[in-house]
Design a protein that fits this description.
Number of strands: 11
Number of helices: 12
Shape: globular
Order of helices and strands: HEHEHEHEEHEEHHEEEHHEHHH
Largest sheet: 9 strands, mixed
CATH superfamily of the largest domain: Spore Coat Polysaccharide Biosynthesis Protein SpsA, Chain A
Helix content: 25-40%
CATH topology of the largest domain: Spore Coat Polysaccharide Biosynthesis Protein SpsA, Chain A
Radius of gyration: 20 Å
Structural class: alpha/beta
Distance between the termini: 21 Å
Strand content: 15-25%
Length: 334
Amino acid sequence: MASRKLPCYDEHTVSDRSSISPEQVRTPVPDISVIIVNWNLREYLRDCLLSLRRHRGGLELETIVVDNASSDGSAAMVEREFPEAMLIRNSENAGFSKANNQAMARARGRYLFLLNNDALVYEGTLPGLVGFMDSHPGAGACGPRIVNADGTLQVRSKGYYPNIRRAAAHFFLPARVRHRRSGSLGFYEFQDRMDQRTVDWLSGCALMVRRKTVEKVGMLDADVFMYCEDIDWCYRMNRAGWQVWYMPGVSALHYGGRSMKRQSGRAVAAHAAGLIAFYSKYHGTLAAMLFRLVLLTGYAAHGLGWLVGGVFGRGGGMDKLRRMGSGRRSGPAS
């Protein structure tokens, strides 16, 4: 699963002129290229773009929206209400990775900021991230504290590289045990620690990446339709010697899963496939087979629990099973 390389240029030199206009070469380089992939979330997208307009903090922004064949008028809304944004219209749902890569190939900013269409930035978020990256040249990427609508930490926004031990703990240990020792037991960091630090990976829902880092490690894995592409990206950065930093001093709101709730894609199965693809990419055949076995056994056990819960009307179990039973490729790009 090969990742694409980012065209390398600045306002003086261009190494890939085939996709860059003369106007782009003459225009001063933006501080940030904000990249938003959208699929049928017009109202959330509008709020997202308004938050960027209001909270740019004096920075020079380039905003790029990639619309994955929305049918709700999203693209027309962007053209009408946000003329400052570059709009890329896709004729089909290209998925999260490919759509972001489309935008990154055209982006001109010193930093690239992937932002979900159902996310909002707050005052100080962008200046805080840029200021940190400017003063830490070894940082390849950084991200803010991701919060839910009620202000609580969004747990799945950061975590640890998947491995066999963590997969087993994720599925077969009680939640209260995993939450106490999330570093070795599970995929996510459950504690809401407020210290600035390096982490294994951060969610692509609000992730700032140094342009030079992407030029070295490549863009997102284009073979991944959705889920775990951000884990893979951060892993490649770390292997190349770049640090991934968590910045809890600034925040972004992520409503989360809004596109997913509007279709019947099997989110659970897609996430499992993403985990397996990531682990298999960097480990031997035997280890990958064992990882797959742990995952499939774990999901089977959870599926049984969802079935029992659905029969007794608890936990939305039947809904999760229905989502697993529908086609993966119907999934969203956000």
